[in-house]
What we know:
Layout (H helix, E strand, L loop, with lengths): L1 H5 L12 H9 L2 H15 L3 H25 L2 H8 L4 E5 L2 E5 L9 E5 L7 E13 L1 H4 L5 E2 L26 E2 L4 E13 L5 H11 L6 H32 L2 H15 L3 H19 L2 E3 L3 H5 L5 E4 L11 E7 L2 E4 L4 H5 L2 H12 L8 H13 L5 E7 L7 E8 L4 E7 L1 H7 L4 H15 L4 E10 L14 E9 L6 H10 L3 E5 L4 H10 L7 E3 H5 L3 H10 L2 E3 L3 H13 L4 E5 L5 H6 L2 E5 L5 H6 L2 E3 L4 H42 L7 H18 L24 H27 L4 H22 L7 H4 L5 H19 L1 H6 L7 H30 L1
Parallel strand pairs: 9-17, 9-20, 17-19, 18-19, 20-21, 21-22
Antiparallel strand pairs: 1-2, 1-3, 3-7, 4-5, 4-6, 4-7, 8-22, 10-11, 10-16, 12-13, 13-14, 14-15, 15-16
Helix pairs in contact: 2-4, 3-4, 3-10, 5-7, 8-9, 9-24, 10-24, 10-25, 13-14, 20-21, 24-25, 24-26, 24-27, 25-27, 25-29, 26-27, 26-31, 27-29, 27-31
Amino acid sequence: MRLAREGANALPDVQRRSRLRIVLEVLREPMFALLLGAAALYAFLGELSDTLVLLAFACFSVAIAVIQESRSERVLEALRDLSSPRALVVRDNNRLRIPGREVVRGDLLVIGAGDRIPADAVVVTANDLHVDESVLSGESVPVRKCAVAGLLPGAGAEFEDLRPGGDDVPLVFSGTLVVRGTGLAVVVATGLHSQIGRIGRALGEMKVEKPRLQVQTQRVVMIAAVAGGVVSILAGLLYGLIHGDWLQATLAGIALGMSVLPEEFPLVLTVFMVMGAWRLSRANVLTRRSAAIETLGAATVLCTDKTGTLTENRMGVAFVGGAGSRWVRSEADEALAASRALTAIVESAALASPPESTDPMDRAMTALSQRVAAQKDYTFVRIYPLQSDFLAVTCVWQPEDAGRIAASKGAPEAIAHLCRLEPRERAEMLAEVDSLCAQGLRVLAVARCALKSKELPGSPLDVPFEYLGLVGFADPVRDGVPRAVDECRAAGIRVVMITGDYPITARAIARQAHINDEAVLSGDELTGLDDAMVRRQVERVDVFARIMPQQKLRIVEALKANGEVVAMTGDGVNDAPALKAAHIGIAMGGRGTDVAREAASLVLLNDDFSSLVQAIRHGRRIYDNLRKAMAFIIAIHVPIGGLALLTIVLGHQLLLTPMLIAFLEMIIDPACSVVLEAEREERNVMTRPPRDPRSALLSRPVIVWSLLQGFLGLLVVSATFLVADSSGMSFPEVRSVTFVSLVLTILVLVLANRSFSSSLMSAFRLKNPALWWGFFVAAGALTIVLTIDSLRDFLGLAPLHLDDLGACAAVAFVLLGALEILKGTWRGRLSR
């Protein structure tokens, strides 16, 4: 009845887009239409090889887009798989193993180590029950669960505000994993009403913004395509009206269209994104959505979790103190082993850890004891597990010789009560605990007692324990994190830490990581704020502690509403909505869930924050080089198009035939897509503020610089053509001289666009093997064209003498000098 009324314990299916639908949506994009249009133009001209190359690029681009879009459709599927394990329930006093989707509210769950929780449930009995809730809380340390007695089936509304991630919460959550102990729990929420279900519902309803680069590129491509089409038609009409030869007019219009139409734009975008993804992979960052590569360069806020990203995700003993002695992790183990009082604390803390424990702190304590304390043979006798009213674990051991030993460790308040400390001793201990917690340590107190009676006590409280000291555990900050945070600050990027840990621990870790810790906002404080107040708070707060899953999304949305470009890291299911909502979602590859990886744009393979900063550096370099390539494309089409138009106006034969333009494209394409992509980063790449995301891909200074280069190149090449034409050369010789001059102009413009911040001369010192390989290939191809008679005649060229080639080289050096002078006055605008 309840299953039929409330629905299955699973996330609802969403309507997936078919691959055909995704392909049709991709083909509607202008840049793909332009690429296919260019291929059709080459096919019309009979250039089969060029047609096939362009079609191959088009198919490759569509395939990449389809793969990326298909992967994004898997987010909810991965979430559904995680939220519907099999379950052991008690119905009519019988234990039944049923599919997780058949669990209903009111079922009594039987849970034990290794079980995946199928639904949100209130714990009614707990025997040393510890649950890994990292998929929801992001915290790697398992949390202990306490029990609530007398819960009636169907109740549980009073527990709706409880959240994952804290100790002694009497609620287990769907999708989490039991790592130790056993228990019984009454189901209070299933399907969409569970914590994981709410996340799934938020993912399904969320709209992803269109990438800025895609929007800007569409605008540039549309303008270029319309302008090229209009110029081509007008030129054909002009030629036909002047000469009356409409066949030649059509050919002239096609040639001019080929020379003006910047069909390299889609090619450049494809190559830059593919190469950018490859370069990021070498920095341990996997690209799932190529648009995120360029968005990295505009990031103004980097939201990161704490555990495993800023820290090593490895709990270790950082402090041992008692009896007037103390040891910290920076000291050698020998210093700890030399103190009898401290080794007694370490040995007792290890004895207070259950055998074969999977708890990270127990394992760290046992490992330290094996290194510094004398190893004795003990036989395990009994454990007194944690209780909701007594937060300490006590283990009893039988030594090899005689007697029994009881060792206990746990919350300092519990151990103080266990040892019956005097008020002054208790106050001193708690003051030291507060000091250690302020350093980001998780502190446990340790006690020990020799049992004289053969009968085991009914409770540890019946034993006269002796207080020994304190043990502090820490998940240390990664070595490169402070330097990486400083580098972000120099680059104008705020680093914001969002964690489920307590405020005092979050502040300590933030201070060690060089994150601004002047203000800390907790999840409870955030709950009481309206959206306007949250927007004001996120402007000044860089540390958020005890944050619930939906609050992460709220923080990201508030930052976006303030105009920030947000990059967000995460690893758990709870992070998926925020990862999807952020401009750049970055999932952890080592410890992240499938849901987080599917929702993210990038995956950090080594979970290291420093790699993320390197990815931002790469993102800025890729965007800079993309702008350089775009500037080069605009610049080079000015002399090519201008020269084609000039010969039409003067009534000459076609100077640049479609075949010659195709040859030029063989030089231009690798120059803009391979050579400029491989350029080194600008000197100020990580010392300048992030670019304004609203700024155009081709800003006004870049467009003006491109047009100035292009017109200078047009002036030089046109002068070469006019001088050669008036010198009595045959038209094939005029064409050859002009063609060589145009090829050299292409190479000069490549040099001019290598760097925004360096002069042409200093750019020669920038290492780029692809540049010299490109020059070598271009020179070799030009030599082959001019020396092989059959190929030269096929292209309508004539042999040239050395003095002709020298004149072309002199013209190229004149252009190089003019651009050097011009760039000196324009460099400041470009570098900004």
